[in-house]
Amino acid sequence: xxxxxxxxxxxxxxxxxxxxxxxxxxxxxxxxxxxxxxxxxxxxxxxxxxxxxxxxxxxxxxxxxxxxxxxxxxxxxxxxxxxxxxxxxxxxxxxxxxxxxxxxxxxxxxxxxxxxxxxxxxxxxxxxxxxxx
Length: 133
Prior knowledge:
3-stranded antiparallel β-sheet, 5 helices
């Protein structure tokens, strides 16, 4: 994953932040909206695009566009840095392939021990009964 190539494909838009903040909110566009088109990206191969589409399906729009917002800070530059870090983390999660679980055979000694324990328990329960004359 080439981070520089990815970042060059990102599209940013500065928007007025919502919520409390007084007069400054009405004047300054500090909120940053990042959008990334997964389908038309040149940074990923077709297999990686398919993997991203399946792993990030809940985060993508119908046009396979990933949209992220950040309005945590009053500075537009800091918000841009935060949203880029968040984007890179999401892409890493989307490209993660979990290891395939290998089924292991139960050792014979474990099976023998389990059967022996069962037999001992049944003997103990048999000994609790009243003897038959």
